[in-house]
């Protein structure tokens, strides 16, 4: 395999490992938010922000932990026949399914980025010079609840999570190609 592909695989693995390990601690933040919610309902007046904040933290935990979970092999796999196959046949099957996953994650990233730009109020103007249109920043999107937080931070985390999952999928495709070729990364 080319040196750039090996360097890419190692860089993405290191990046997703670090972000995934940090995302694990979001579970403690989620517990603290839910404990505060319970305490405030019993003793004080209920807080408006706790339910939505808990949802945001859970989304970040889930989305940023996805690439780490994929890297560690913690996803569920049905291996009724797969476990009996030789390594190269497994690599061919994995390459096909990872290629399908890359297409799916590309579409999800596109949708997440579109939603993120909408939350920033980006609207594309009329085509101008050389057919280019310039973005116009408008009103920032807010949640329709009583707390009314801005939605762009969680949508940015969605974009980051899908991008990291896409990078991790590409590393799996590179590893599968190396296995098919009889090499190891």
From TrEMBL:
Membrane topology note: Multi-pass membrane protein
Domain Tripartite ATP-independent periplasmic transporters DctQ component: 30-178
InterPro entries tied to this protein: DctQ, TRAP_DctQ
Keyword line: Cell inner membrane, Cell membrane, Membrane, Transmembrane, Transmembrane helix, Transport
Subcellular location: Cell inner membrane
Keyword Transmembrane among UniProt keywords: yes
Transmembrane segments: 21-39, 51-70, 91-113, 150-174
One example GO MF annotation: transmembrane transporter activity
CC per GO annotation: plasma membrane
Pfam families xrefs: DctQ
Function: Part of the tripartite ATP-independent periplasmic (TRAP) transport system.
PANTHER family: 2,3-DIKETO-L-GULONATE TRAP TRANSPORTER SMALL PERMEASE PROTEIN YIAM, SLL1102 PROTEIN
Annotated protein name in UniProt: TRAP transporter small permease protein
């Amino acid at each position: 395999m080319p040196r750039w592909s090996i360097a890419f695989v190692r860089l993405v693995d290191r990046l997703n490992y670090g972000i995934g390990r940090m995302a694990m601690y979001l579970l403690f933040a989620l517990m603290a938010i839910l404990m505060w919610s319970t305490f405030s309902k019993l003793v004080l007046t209920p807080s408006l922000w706790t339910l939505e904040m808990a949802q945001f933290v859970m989304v970040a935990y889930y989305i940023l932990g996805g690439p780490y979970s994929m890297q560690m092999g913690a996803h569920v796999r049905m291996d009724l026949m797969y476990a009996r196959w030789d390594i190269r046949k497994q690599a061919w099957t994995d390459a096909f399914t990872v290629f399908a996953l890359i297409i799916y994650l590309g579409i999800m990233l596109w949708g997440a980025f579109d939603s993120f730009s909408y939350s920033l109020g980006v609207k594309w103007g009329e085509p101008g010079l050389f057919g280019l249109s310039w973005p116009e920043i408008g009103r920032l999107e807010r949640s329709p609840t009583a707390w009314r937080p801005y939605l762009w931070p969680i949508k940015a985390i969605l974009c980051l999570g899908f991008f990291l999952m896409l990078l991790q999928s590409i590393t799996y495709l590179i590893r599968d190609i190396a296995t098919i070729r009889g090499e190891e990364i």
